Amino acid sequence: MARAEPLPVPVSPLADPETGGTLIIDLNAVEANWRALARQVLTVECAAVVKANAYGLGLEPVTAKLAKAGCKTFFVADIAEARRVRARARDATIYVLNGFSPAAATAFIELNAQPVINSTAELAEWDAFVAAHKWQGGAALHVDTGMNRLGISAAEAAALAPRVQHENHGITLLMSHLACAEIADHPLNASQIRLFRELRMLYHGVPASLANSSGIFFGDSAHYEMVRPGAALYGINPTPGRANPMRGVVELTGRILQVRKVEQGETVGYGAAWTARRASRIAIVALGYADGLLRAASGTDRKPGGAAIIAAKRCPIAGHISMDLICIDITELPDGVVHRGDIATFIGERITVDDIAASAGTIGYEILTRLGPRCHLVYRGA
Question: Mind telling me the catalytic residues?
Answer without folding.
Answer: 51, 270
